[in-house]
Specification:
Length: 101
């Protein structure tokens, strides 16, 4: 399944809807949108993951990149995380740096 991501920014919140498979080939596209969100000085990043079926370590690196680039005190929230994707994030320990609902 191909990867797709769309971003919507309202106020200081950027919401990204991800679908498909996030891997080494698709990670640059997500990193680019995260960079655009940072340029717009958002304080909260919400990732809607209910349609994301797979996340490789490259996808986790995207989350780490976002965490590093957003201003201190910013929040990253993952919504609708599929069990397989959530397990990948938990295995890295990154679930302690974000909010997963």
């Amino acid at each position: 399944m191909s990867f797709q991501v769309r971003m919507n920014v309202e106020g200081d919140t950027a919401t990204l809807r991800l679908s498909g498979e996030l891997d080494g080939r698709s990670a640059p596209e997500l990193n680019q949108l995260v960079g655009e969100a940072v340029e717009r000085r958002v304080g909260k990043l919400v990732l809607l993951l209910d349609e994301l079926t797979y996340m490789s370590s490259a996808g986790v690196r995207c989350l780490v990149f976002a965490h590093q680039k957003l201003p201190s005190g910013s929040e990253i929230t993952l919504v609708g995380t599929q069990p397989e994707v959530a397990e990948t994030i938990r295995l890295t320990g990154f679930d302690r740096s974000i909010v997963m609902t």
